[in-house]
Predict the 3D structure of the following.
Amino acid sequence: MRIGVFVCNCGTNIAGTVDTAKVASEALTFADVVYATNYMYTCSEPGQQEIQRAIGEHGLQGVVVAACSPRMHEPTFRRAVEKAGLNKYMFEMANIREHVSWIGNDKAANTAKAADLVRMAVAKLRFNQPLFSSKMPVNKRLLVIGGGVAGIQAALDCADGGMDVVMVERKQYIGGKMAQLDKTFPTIDCSSCILGPKMVDVSQKENITLYASSEIESISGYIGNFTVDIRKKATYVNWDACTGCGACMEKCPAKNTPDVFNENLGSARAINIPFPQAIPKKAVIDARHCRQLNGKKCGVCAKICPVKAIDFEMKDTIVTEKVGAIIAATGYDLFDHSVYGEYGAGRYPDVITGIQYERILSASGPYGGHIQRPSDGKEPKNIVFLACVGSRDASVGRPYCSGVCCMYIAKQAILTKDHLPESNSYVFYMDIRAPGKNYDEFVRRAQEEYGVQYIRGRVAKIYPRGDRMVVQGADTLLGVQVEVEADLVVLATGIESSAGAGELAEKLRISYDQYGFYMESHPKLRPVETNTAGVYLAGACQGPKDIPSSVAQGSAAASKVQSLFAHDTIETNPQVALVNERNCIACGKCIQVCPFGAIQWKELRGGIKKAEVLPTVCQGCGVCNATCPPKAVQLQHATDNQLLAEVNELCA
Amino acid sequence: MAVGWVKRSAAHHAVSEIERVEKAVLETSRMQLHKLVEEALPELEMMIGWAESSDPLQTTPIFIRDAKSISKLTCGPLCSQNLTGYLVKPPALDSVPKDAKPIGICVKGCDSRSLVALIQEKFLTRDRVRIFGIPCRGTVDWRKVEKRVQLLNVKSATVEDDWLILDDSGTTHKIALEEVLSRKCLGCRYPNPVIHDVLIGQSATPRSTDLATTYRDVDAIEKEPLEQRLAFWQSELDRCIRCYACRNACPLCVCQDKCIVETREPRWLTQRAGIPEKFLFHFIHAMHLAGRCTGCGECERVCPMEIPVTLIKEKLNKIMEEMLGYAAGLDPDAVPPLLTFNPGETEI
């Protein structure tokens, strides 16, 4: 093989601590290397032309570029060598920037290491084979998992672009957490007024299929061709018939059903439509509290329903949808503050969470928008807000900032003053984080115009005194202990990943961090892509986010889907596993361990069984190769021989 | 323990009484085996067992198809081979059609675990084998015998009670069985077959019930400083002649002529006879058995260079038990932890 080596200076990024000219001259001594040079910016247009020129001039059959991470520019250089007539897999990259120049200052050592890496890349390249991808049709339908504001935005954007969208929502209504909010910061506009039209749009768009009360059962396939099984949970109400009239709710005798939508501040009925603007406006029976479903004599709803929609025999059903791309927009959950014993561990009815306070403030909430204490219904005078409950606290496993609490506390304090002009609000905070547009001004307004008292310090203890709660804390700016007698305490509970986020990630085959937030492909440059092609992220499932960011990310994910769907076909990745049938001993271990179900039995003439890889399902993870005892399964472009060549070169 | 031995020798008269009984038990087991095999043979394609060989200290595998040969079958501490490999490896079964009648096989406790592992990995189906389980008090390592006494021409070897009695050209050697048992037997937790259709003789008492006893040899090496361990393995593996007897004898080494130490595609090993190559071979062998090795010790038994190669696998077995709580070859329905993909395993 005739190999050319191109060592990139990357300005001074590499050349600052690596003698690139020396690396190039050393490369000329490696087996099969017939040309080597260094260049200022190899990824630049002239840099690529230099590679192409050298391929023609020196009859190169393979190219090594020693530069940055292949995650940056491998596609660039593959295209460049392809344009010059080589197969794009006859190219290898040695990462001498992230792995060498950026991490050490010793120029001699760096230069030696860079030369080692180039030597390994050359050794691997000598075993490279031209690989060819095939074309697969793209199914231009989108699956959106989660019907919160991020998912809604993504679905609407794609539906507007003329694509078919399938939306799956675990709850019986869409709108997510935003549907529970009263007002939104920093504009104090009504949450349901701005979200409502979007929710209605979802239900009215003909090219959006909405599965509410449904969950993802399983996902198979790959970019452009996913098959998704959706579990439609038994609602015990035939939604095709249900008109959402609500007559059943009025007559249902199971009056002690927890009102989940109102954060358990009131009680609902076992058959319920959670709020007036709910989409879809369909009733669902809570099987845990329904008298009929728990063997008692009832069936009142069935008798009262004018359209006979009640079906106590209903079972979960599985529907299968085929889509070409998936947007995960599963949102978040709120921290369970009961781990804080010093805040009462959830024992005190007048120590509530921020989201409960949203419901109290809401006109459609349990108290009709009148601020009162859950314990005795009295109007509170002193209200204390605690920031960072389950945020920035490593002791409860939540070292990160939830990003929204400072703002929603300010909003709630302002609204409190609007509702109860005589009231006093106090905020215990660590730092105020208000970096968004008009955010800091908003917090200032709370302090300066609405007289909210901000106390910088943590609260040590909350305990009852009479019918009030004593909040004991420190004012670290004054260096004194403070004690506030409060009628109501609002804990600004932080954001955590949605319950079941990990299980869904496994089904989607995407990575998630230690807190359960989904990992983007690159924190800066690929913020809505995941490492599984065809799966994108929107909203707080990727990390704590406020509404504007969630909506922006919803649109961003939608635009990624649209650029994917702009093509009729996609190229398959040939870097997948391949079975050498001569070596396969038919032990079946690869089939057992494959996380993607990408390997199956194949029967040759005479009934001889061999393993066979489905190249379109294979993700190239290599578990089969690691498991195969005779190494009959080889991962293309990372074969044992290629890896061994690198190791041997390093150890030589 | 030693005191006990002396006492017994002194009370020689009483001992010979027990010896006769023990010998009778062994004889009874053999007769029981013959009877059971005779009954079963018409329903079997073949019976795989042990027979006496020209060397009285070692038995030989026997493949019985007709009733005349049944009398050659034997059992007892001299039957050291693990026969289960013959069920999955050529050439013994090459002539047996797949839809043939079941194959009978004699197994000791350790052998039965290999059988379970083969069933787990679907190399065998349970109904293809008729298992004659034989509880085992340990097998004789002939090399240990030769190290203890100078042997010229052994005419016969018999086990009576806790003694191995050799008739060597007229001289009688009486050796405590305990002192010539195979290394693996001394930490044996499963002397009784974990899977069987019939059981022959009385059940045996496990010599070990804990990891510390079973893995005492691994622990001893682990206590050594790193340099010493390296030096130990270098000197041991330096003797390796890469005859692959260990691989061939292993009932779970099923790749046969596709074994990657001999293939050129992919080319993991060269023919260079250096210590690194020998290391690599033995560690590939061990890694391929991680979570599968049942510790039957065949690799070590057959090694012509007396390298303690089972020890490498024992180390992996210990890791498997400590980390994953898994010992191979006990439950035919269990999935070996390294042969599955479980996303829930986040701690590993």
